[in-house]
Design a protein that fits this description.
Blueprint: E1 14-20, H1 27-39, E2 44-49, H2 63-73, E3 79-82, H3 84-88, H4 93-103, E4 108-114, H5 115-119, H6 127-133, E5 136-139, H7 145-150, H8 152-156, E6 161-162, E7 178-181, H9 190-199
Parallel strand pairs: 1-2, 1-4, 2-3, 4-5, 5-7, 6-7
Length: 201
């Protein structure tokens, strides 16, 4: 497996992972990434541009195209945009996390998600494995705070929740552990952007 284009992380670093189709990437993604760096005390954030989202019926734009656009959306010294899941041959988050830990055994990973994803986490394949593998940092998005906090994942792992005041410790917390932080959010969405592109004359 060619690892020449893979991100580099030093032993002991805390790396946030933001996965998704990024179809297309937009300022909302960049905004929660910058907030995650600050709120969770991350050394880096890696965007994992997925080959395809198993929960979505329609396929995304070609991977190379989405990676290139994502790189233009965020230019930050501690953020890497990568299509590493295609190299790993994984399409589900649980398997991606296992593979990343095998390839970066001395790195502390934190899975990042918007509150909307926490609300539907119980629909993800092997979602209990995700919670057992890495700490999870949840960033509030407009309209999703209540549904996320009352959803199945939040209820099942209620005892594993870390308070927002302890957010900087998330990367070194024993799993399962998750932290929900409220941040000023951008209302941009990939769905809305695709709709705008389709309706342009």
């Amino acid at each position: 497996m060619d690892r020449s284009g893979w991100p580099i992380a030093r032993a002991g670093q805390v790396v946030g992972l933001l996965g998704g189709s990024f179809d297309p990437a937009h300022e909302g993604h960049a905004h929660i990434t910058r907030e995650a760096l600050k709120r969770f005390g991350l050394d880096q954030v890696w965007w994992l541009v997925s080959p395809g989202n198993p929960l979505k019926k329609r396929g995304p734009a070609p991977l190379d195209q989405r990676v290139t656009l994502a790189q233009s959306v965020i230019q930050h010294p501690r953020v890497r945009v990568t299509g590493i899941e295609a190299d790993l041959g994984t399409r589900y988050t649980a398997k991606t996390l296992t593979a990343l830990q095998a390839n970066y055994p001395q790195v502390n990973f934190v899975w990042l998600m918007g509150a909307d994803n926490l609300a539907q986490l119980h629909r993800w394949q092997d979602w209990h494995s995700i919670m057992a593998t890495v700490p999870v940092g949840v960033l509030a998005r407009p309209g999703d705070r209540i549904s996320a906090r009352t959803g199945m994942a939040a209820r099942v792992y209620r005892g594993a929740k870390i308070s927002g005041r302890q957010a900087l410790k998330l990367g070194h917390a024993a799993t399962p552990a998750w932290c929900f932080v409220n941040v000023p959010m951008s209302s941009a969405s990939s769905t809305a952007i695709r709709e705008q592109q389709r309706t342009k004359p």
